[in-house]
Amino acid sequence: MKYQLKINGEIRSVDVEPGTPLLWVLRDELGLTGTKFGCGVAYCGACTVHIDGYPSRSCQTFIEDAVDSEITTIEGATDRVAKAVQAAWREKDVVQCGWCQSGQVMSAIGLLTENPKPSDEEIKEYMYGNACRCVTYLRINEAVKLASRKLEA
Q1: In degrees, to the nearest 5, what angle opens at C-alpha 78 toward C-alphas 73 and 80?
Q2: Would you call 102 helix, strand, or coil by DSSP?
Q3: Which fold has domain 80-152?
Q4: Do 80-152 and 2-74 fall under one CATH topology?
Q5: pTM above 0.90?
Q6: What is the pLDDT of residues 33-50, one digit of tens each?
């Protein structure tokens, strides 16, 4: 079945079966491989994208549920908040293996968009559910705080 999606500000057409997870549409049909497959059950957060401005797990979002929505992937995360988060990630040298990082970054962007000055507890609570196999949680927390300070400047 044909679907039209607005992804990273551009209308894209795909022909896939109903019930296809958005993750596989992004990766296999559109070549947007920055969004990663981790667990397939919305537990690990590696597949996080923004749907209508909110972090969402693309592995459990079906194609038909994404129609008429604004979808942003890591490739399209280019606003002021995204740039601050990405710069903080580099500065704090967060990435080790990198598998979870696009999901972590997309969640951090969502957090700082909603709450530009989160406490440590708010960061921990918001980022909960984003698993990191390399256990870089302390650097992730520090990077979110640094991004927050960058946004204040």
Answers
A1: 130
A2: helix
A3: DNA polymerase; domain 1 (1.10.150)
A4: no
A5: yes
A6: 999 999 999 999 999 999
